[in-house]
Every structure is written in structure tokens, then in C-alpha cells.
Amino acid sequence: MKIIALTGYKPLEMNIFKPKDHKIDIIKEAIKKKLISLIDEGLEWVLMSGQMGVEQWTSQVIIELKDQYEINFAIIPPFENQQARWPEHYQSDYEEIIMEADFFQTLYKSEYKGPYQFKARDKWLIDKSEACLILMDEEFPGSTSFFLEEAKKAGEREFYPILTITPFDLEEIVQEIEINNTDYWNND
């Protein structure tokens, strides 16, 4: 597969309240590990809406990976100024990410009008990709549940793999970090 859609939790859904939380490093490492595996299998593009949390962290990981790998990412927000109500540091990160994106275009050329814009975003991302990658726990899908439902519908119509990064994958990263850097948790 050459093109995937990617999404996952927002920071608050993972109890992340600070921009320097150690959990972000773990999440980014899990994303990096999964993306490198997919790149090695032919992945060329990652499509996202750029929402705060997993999508922004993935964008940052891809920007770092570009030094070593041929990988592109597109940011397709559902509407203009989606970041207007976000905390300032996420707004700043978003502005940096859209400057680095290989492609950027809003789906609707207007501000927020209603939840239908999010549904249209999910459908568009799925229609334009060959598979999706979601960071989530299926027992507690949170905001990813809407995307997951749309991806499952796509899978009923045609072959559309739903790949995941799960809490188990994150725990593996924690164990790797602890083995390789015993002082990691003391480096605040």
C-alpha cells in the first residue's frame, strides 16, 4: 500500500495535559516504528486532518523521517481555522506542520458549520487511501470511533485494512525505553 489515512486520540483522551509529557515520546516512538515498517513495504503518503494529538505528533515524526526516507504527508482539515479554539502550543505546532506538509488543503472552504464536516473528512480520507492506521484501544475508542466506523464500512465494500497501534504496542515501547535508558523517567 502506498497511501494510508492516519488518526488517533486527542491529547486529553490520553490524559496528556502538558506539551512535554513523557507519554508523547512513547507515542511518537510507536508511530515511528510502525511508519518505518510500512515505508519499507512501499508506503509513500500519509493523509491526516492535522488535529491535535496523534495526527500532529505523526506529522512531526514524518518530518524527522524525511531525512532518511522517501515519505510524504498531506494535511486535509475539514474546514478553515480548525485550530482556532485549540491551546496555543497546539496552534503553533499546527502552523509549523502545515508549512512542512507536502500537500495542504481544507475540505470545506469555510469555518466550522457542523458535525457533517467531520464525517465528510473521515469519508474523504478513507476514499483517498488504501488502508488506515489508528492509534486507539478498541475497548475505549473515544473520538476515533467515528473514523473507525467509516473505515469498517469501507472494508465491507472493498479490501480496506484497518491497522492499529494499541496500548500493548505502547507498552512494548516503554519496555524498550526502560531497557535502553534506565534513567529515562528521571529526565524531566
UniProtKB/TrEMBL annotation:
<dbReference type="Pfam" id="PF06908">
    <property type="entry name" value="YpsA"/>
</dbReference>
<dbReference type="InterPro" id="IPR010697">
    <property type="entry name" value="YspA"/>
</dbReference>
<protein>
    <submittedName>
        <fullName>DUF1273 family protein</fullName>
    </submittedName>
</protein>
